[in-house]
Design a protein that fits this description.
By secondary structure, the chain is mainly α. About 65% of the residues lie in helices and about 5% in strands. It is built from eleven helices and two strands; from the N terminus they run ααααβααααβααα. The protein has helices at about 10-40, 50-65, 70-75, 85-105, 120-140, 145, 150-155, 180-190, 195-225, 225-235, 245-250; strands at about 110-115, 190-195. A two-stranded antiparallel sheet has the order 1-2.
């Protein structure tokens, strides 16, 4: 009988693990719902406005999101967190930080642009298309890894979590970071760009390009020569005229055996 077919005994620890897994998936769905409407229409203008406060909210998502993915940080934390639950923890931290941002965001009424009519419709079409592109590109490498569901499901069936493979498919044959490119569309394609939204867009744009660089180094760390060869052939972003963006950093990374 295969490990996946074993009927594992129900204990308090296992029951808690199951509850954590499903709760995280629900939390992810709720966060996506609120994030969609927040990025599309923003919030109503608030009585108190502080761009410094909004900058803090934007950074409290971006910085922990990147730090938790660093190999050195993950190696230390998995001494206390089961590897099957690290993805759930990462997803939960991401969701809570986004919900905090959405709930506490302070909207400034000043508008940098406000497209109406055909212009507004085109902006909304591009915004929705960016969501579809994000869903498509995430699925190419596994949506279950983004929510922590896939490694948790192995634990649920009593199996060891295998090493995560990297096999370029679809858009990954044309660019290395389709997920980040799609996310750029979510923050730029808005018919109404208020001052606070511009701050969020600028902050997260810097975060996205920094995250791209960190991801290249992270995958070079885990995959070694195979990712170096891939990065040498595939540009980071097709729309950027210089093909070798971040390539030097990837080539200079220290390659180590897979973990």
């Amino acid at each position: 009988m295969k490990a996946a077919e074993l009927k594992l005994p129900m204990t308090y620890t296992r029951a808690a693990g199951i509850a954590v897994g499903w709760s995280t998936q629900l939390l992810f769905g709720i966060t996506v719902w609120y994030l969609y409407w927040f990025l599309q229409d923003g919030k109503q203008a608030t009585r108190n406005t502080s761009l410094l406060w909004d900058a803090f909210l934007a950074l409290q998502f971006a910085i922990p999101h990147s730090i938790l993915l660093l190999p050195a940080v993950k190696k230390k934390l998995t001494k206390f967190i089961h590897p099957a639950f690290y993805g759930l923890m990462f997803c939960a931290v991401t969701c809570f930080s986004l919900l905090l941002l959405i709930d506490c965001w302070q909207t400034h009424g000043y508008e940098l642009w406000h497209f109406q009519g055909i212009g507004g419709i085109l902006m909304r079409i591009c915004f929705i298309a960016s969501w579809f592109a994000l869903y498509y590109s995430i699925n190419l490498t596994g949506l279950g890894y983004q929510t922590g569901y896939t490694p948790w499901s192995y634990w649920l069936h009593g199996e060891s979590v295998p090493a995560r493979p990297f096999q370029p498919r679809g858009a990954y044959h044309m660019l290395r970071h389709p997920v980040y490119l799609s996310f750029l569309g979510l923050i730029w394609f808005t018919p109404r760009m208020t001052l606070d939204h511009a701050l969020l867009t600028a902050t997260w744009t810097v975060y996205i390009f920094t995250g791209s660089w960190l991801k290249d180094r992270r995958l070079a760390y885990y995959l070694g020569r195979s990712y170096q060869d891939y990065a040498a052939k595939v540009p980071a972003y097709v729309s950027i005229p210089f093909r070798g963006l971040f390539a030097k950093h990837v080539k200079a990374a220290i390659f180590r055996p897979n973990h």
